[in-house]
Amino acid sequence: MKKYISTQSRKVAKSQSKFYKKTFASLRLFAFALILVFPLFAQQKVAVLIPEKTFQSQVFAEKLENSLSKNFKILDDSLSETAFRSAKFETPFNLSLKESKNVGAAIGCDYFLLIKAENQRRNSLSKGEYYESYAVVYAVSSRTGRLIFWKLAVGEAETTEKAERKLFASTDDLSAEISDKLKTVTKDELNEKAAQKLEELPAEDLSEAKNFRPPLPYRRIKPPYTRLANLYSVEATVDIEIDVDENGKIQRTEITRWAGFGLDESVDKTIRQMTWKPADRDGKTLPMRVLLRYNFKKIEENFQSKK
Q1: pLDDT mean over 165-170
Q2: What is the CATH code of the structural domain delimited by 207-304?
Q3: pTM
Q4: Where exactly does CATH 3.40.50.10610 map onto the chain?
Q5: What is the pLDDT of residues 66-84, one digit of tens each?
Q6: CATH 3.40.30.10 fits domain 45-191
Q7: What gap in Å lies between CA 154 and CA 136, rounded to an integer?
């Protein structure tokens, strides 16, 4: 009888042990999953920055902040501005991924917005003379440094005051757009796989550069300078990283210095339209990652023939 009870006790203990192990394993898996998705539920921290101080920029930024604060934690403006200005960027609306990530880390935010708003007088054949109040908003991810959202908001009227009122009235709609985009990007970035490691262009003094030919397009195409960039006299540099496989096909592109105003899309689209020769070393083709740079500057004559 004692032996029977002892055997039964061991069976119960063994069964309980298996149960506890399974339960503990499930809890660990749940905790790990919670850590991965926690950023989706935690309130994201957003910094709003005004690199070029104007009255219009400050009013627009304040209204946008008030609207965004319903969905995000807006960081202290003065502290965020101090961290941003300490970097002393010459072109604050034309940053690289590395610069953007450094800014985000210094501020301690998940995303930061760059805002510029101004008034200007316009004249057209259809409208005659009128006033335009516009605001440009860049939303940047601190995790990746990418420009994840870009928007030009415009208010037009016969007086500056009326144009400003129209512009400032657009902040709620703009806030909704930004909120939706940031939520989507947060999920995408958490699920994004790291880019495949590829060889990059070797320095000329290295042995790898001997008998080496980089990937080259059969015919170079210049990315168009967009009409929107021309209208606002944008001068910017766009850097793009491309992966060209051993057959000359582009497998991946990444804008590594962004500009907005449609210039990033112009560069990416143009690169993908080109036919490429693959990299070659000692007569053997190989996949290669290369960085290309395009400079944009307003040139009036480019548009005169199209008017």
Answers
A1: 96
A2: 3.30.2420.10
A3: 0.82
A4: 45-191
A5: 999 999 999 999 999 999 9
A6: no
A7: 9
